[in-house]
From TrEMBL:
<keyword id="KW-1133">Transmembrane helix</keyword>
<protein>
    <submittedName>
        <fullName>Basic amino acid/polyamine antiporter, APA family</fullName>
    </submittedName>
</protein>
<dbReference type="GO" id="GO:0016020">
    <property type="term" value="C:membrane"/>
</dbReference>
<keyword id="KW-0472">Membrane</keyword>
<dbReference type="GO" id="GO:0015171">
    <property type="term" value="F:amino acid transmembrane transporter activity"/>
</dbReference>
<dbReference type="Pfam" id="PF13520">
    <property type="entry name" value="AA_permease_2"/>
</dbReference>
<keyword id="KW-0812">Transmembrane</keyword>
<dbReference type="InterPro" id="IPR002293">
    <property type="entry name" value="AA/rel_permease1"/>
</dbReference>
């Protein structure tokens, strides 16, 4: 059976009312058709296997909570910071299995935005997509800000340092965080050149990242003091929960992998495998490094400490060259996070543009490079400016709340499709259904509740801006809303092989 081009009605003609439009779901067959045919331009190139997908996930995840915000998280939880990582990792795992099922079922770019559109309708999809814009763009900026700490540690080995005016944001007494701006711009240039090249460079950097963290553990355990874990909960259970909410920021990587659905060779098989494998790798290393760090230094030492792992190595070995090697490796590790998460941001906006909810420029794919060049340049420039002028703490918390909300929606999407579309072929199924997605949703809500009032105010303001943009642009330009009722019913009725991108591509 051939999946034909999707006819649409004239923009604005015969559109459903507001309530009906907000609830109108995008047919999965239409998503896959657009992915295979390059709706609005050339299709993205399918070049990723399970290794590249896993490395995208690990690259976007591993390192953030340890290399960047450890110094800000340990004072909240004390020696129990490793428990915070376990709690956050468990919450992420509950959502990861839901992502794995949805990634195999809806193998397109867009991640939880696309999953929400297929299950809960345009209104919730817009909210989810807007949360993902917050999650990805702000997390890239936050991680890039943290890179500046390690750049200064690297220069410090040679007796040099960036002046405060070029190392700190205006809120911290500086002018611009130059290191953060440069790292984002370099990642932007690499992504413009091509996704395949970016993926291989990321894979190499991930290997370096894992190596330096294992090396840190080996050195830190030589100075291990079990007494540093007493008392285990100096700030109480509330402190552990607060730290878990903050370090959840460290687990957004597998979400980035799911944005590669249109560039995977066999997404229905490889995306679930990559998501689960990356979660296992990342959580194991996070807990190991946290235990090693607390064992080497009492928890009070971390308060206000920047680039904590480098300082532990330097104080333990008294060898500046070791700190230099680690600092350089840390900069590369952070660069891989910036690269992969920025990649995910551009693919989210590409999907939203394809649906008409954001301007078409974000969805234009270059036939020469197979990448959304204009969208990448716009996003990269905006993120670079954010990284240069906003401090780390506010960025990290804003990222966490957007991530948690998007993850909760994916858990709900799994429940919806299990109940309403049991006929769809699933290469991976959430274990212990419906307990797992229900727990995943509740866990995300619990961690969101532990974030501060200021973070909730920022999130509320962000949502109000998003609602204004939807009514100002998205509602009038939505392509799903422009479908005639007959076309919409026909597309919604398609099941089975039409959800397989290889079948659509072959025209079978």
């Amino acid at each position: 059976m051939t999946v034909s081009a999707t006819p649409v009605t004239k923009a604005g003609a015969g559109r459903p009312g507001l309530g009906a439009q907000l609830l109108r779901r995008k047919p999965i067959s239409q998503m896959v058709e657009e992915a295979g045919n390059g709706e609005g331009g050339a299709p993205l190139r399918r070049s990723f296997g399970v290794l590249q997908l896993t490395m995208i996930s690990v690259g976007a995840t591993l390192g953030t909570g340890i290399l960047v915000i450890l110094g800000e998280s340990v004072p909240l939880a004390g020696p129990a910071i490793w428990i915070s990582f376990v709690i956050a990792g468990f919450a992420a795992l509950l959502s990861a299995v839901s992502y794995a099922e949805m990634a195999g079922l809806v193998p397109v770019a867009g991640s939880s935005y696309s999953y929400s559109y297929a299950t809960m309708g345009e209104g919730m999809a817009w909210i989810c997509g807007w949360c993902l814009v917050l999650e990805y763009a702000v997390s890239v900026a936050a991680v890039a800000v943290g890179a500046g700490q390690y750049v200064n540690e690297t220069l410090g080995v040679f007796g040099l340092a960036l002046p405060d005016g070029l190392a700190l944001s205006p809120a911290e007494g500086g002018t611009v965080n130059l290191s953060a701006v440069v790292i984002v711009l370099l990642a932007m240039v690499l992504l413009v050149r091509g996704a395949r090249e970016s993926a291989w460079i990321n894979t190499a950097i991930v290997a370096v990242k894992v190596g330096i963290l294992v090396f840190f553990c080996a050195v830190a355990f030589t100075a291990f003091n079990a007494g540093n874990f007493e008392p285990l909960l100096p700030m109480g259970a509330a402190g552990v929960s607060a730290a878990a909410s903050r370090v959840f920021f460290s687990y957004i990587g597998f979400d980035a992998a799911s944005t590669a659905g249109e560039e995977a060779k066999n997404p229905k098989r490889d995306l679930p495998r990559a998501i689960m494998l990356s979660m296992l790798i990342v959580t194991s290393i996070y807990v190991l490094v946290a235990v090693a760090a607390i064992g080497a230094r009492p928890w009070g030492w971390f308060d206000g400490t920047e680039a904590a792992l480098v300082q532990i190595l330097e104080e333990t070995t008294h060898q500046p060259w070791i700190a230099l090697v680690f600092a350089v490796g840390a900069v590369l590790a952070i660069a891989s996070i910036v690269l992969t998460v920025l990649y995910g941001q551009t693919r989210i906006l590409l999907s939203m543009s394809r649906d008409g909810l954001v301007p078409a420029i974000f969805g234009r794919v270059s036939r020469r490079t197979g990448t959304p060049v204009a969208g990448t340049l716009i996003v990269g420039t905006a993120v670079a400016l954010t990284a240069g002028f906003i401090p780390l703490g506010a960025l990290a918390d804003a990222t966490s709340i957007g991530t948690l909300f998007a993850f909760a929606l994916v858990n709900v999407a799994v429940i919806y499709l299990r109940r309403n579309r049991p006929d769809l072929k699933r290469n991976f199924r959430v274990p212990l259904y419906p307990l797992t997605p229900v727990l995943g949703t509740l866990m995300c809500a619990y961690l969101m509740a532990n974030l501060g009032a200021e973070t909730w105010l920022v999130f509320g303001a962000w949502m109000l801006v998003g609602i204004a943009l939807y009514f100002g642009y998205g509602r009038r330009n939505s392509k799903v809303a422009a479908l005639s009722e007959q076309d919409y019913r026909e597309l919604s009725a398609r099941v089975g092989d039409e959800t397989d991108p290889e079948t659509v591509k072959a025209g079978l």
